[in-house]
Amino acid sequence: MRYLILSDIHANLTALDAVLEAAKGKWDKAVCLGDLVGYGPDPNEVVEKIQSLKAVTIRGNHDKGVSDLTHSEDFNPVARAVLLWTHDQLRPENRAYIENLPKGSKPVDDFSIVHGSFLDEDEYVFSPMLAYEDLLESPTPVAFFGHTHIQGGFVLRGEEVSVLSSKPMPGKMIFPLTIEPKIKYLLNPGSVGQPRDGDPRAGFAIADLQHHLVEFWRVPYDIGEVQLRMAHAGLPEPLILRLTFGR
Predict the structure, then answer these.
(1) How many CA atoms lie within 13 A of 80 on its CB side?
(2) How confident is the model at residue 74 (pLDDT cuts 50, 70, 90)?
């Protein structure tokens, strides 16, 4: 079974379509680690696309914020403004879908998925120290997380955690990772709709754990087209500009 691993789409339909085109014929089942909405101009279209994929999906913090606006107070002013805009834009059936997304973590066959961390769905796992706790908590040798928008992850060998730098090099689309036995992995597929690791291309992963392989992908998309839609919707300029630089 080959899994398409998506995360942090953030209402960016153009990036999601580019990902699906690049991954066509290469996966059997889709998984989404949350944050379908927030930041971007296409909340309804992204929700409907994910539903059409029949993806196994958990909620992210932006999904939770749109579902219950009392959580929007936890966001910075720019992110909160987009949450309120998104809440107003969502059609009732799509808002209901978002509201009913389950909280992670969640088992998916022989791996696990979580949005932030196993200890706190809203926690950012940036460091080996935080990853160590998550790797111990993970019930499976391989787990996928999102939230940081940084492709890569962490590896636990014995008691030592190392950082996995798995982002494809410029000019390359794929970084293959061989999954070794008796080692635990906490892997981030990257952000589809708003990367923050210096590479503006859409990030995702394809996992074939039966063959001990995870591929980290980056694909280009028409960033300018998305920025025009964001500007037309009146979304904050800092969010429009950051897509150019992937930060």
Answers:
(1) 9
(2) confident
Residues listed for the chain: 247
- 3-class DSSP state for residue 110? coil
Element housing 20 (H / E): helix 13-22
pLDDT digits (tens, 9 = 90+) for 186-220: 999 999 999 999 999 999 999 999 999 999 999 99
- Residue 181: exposure state from Cβ atoms within 10 A (0-12, 13-18, ≥19): exposed
Structural domains present in the chain: 3-245 (3.60.21.10)
Which pTM does this prediction carry? 0.94
Task: Tell me the C-alpha distance between 139 and 215, whole Å.
Answer: 22
Residue with tokens 């909405």: 37
Cβ–Cβ < 8 Å for 233, 43: no
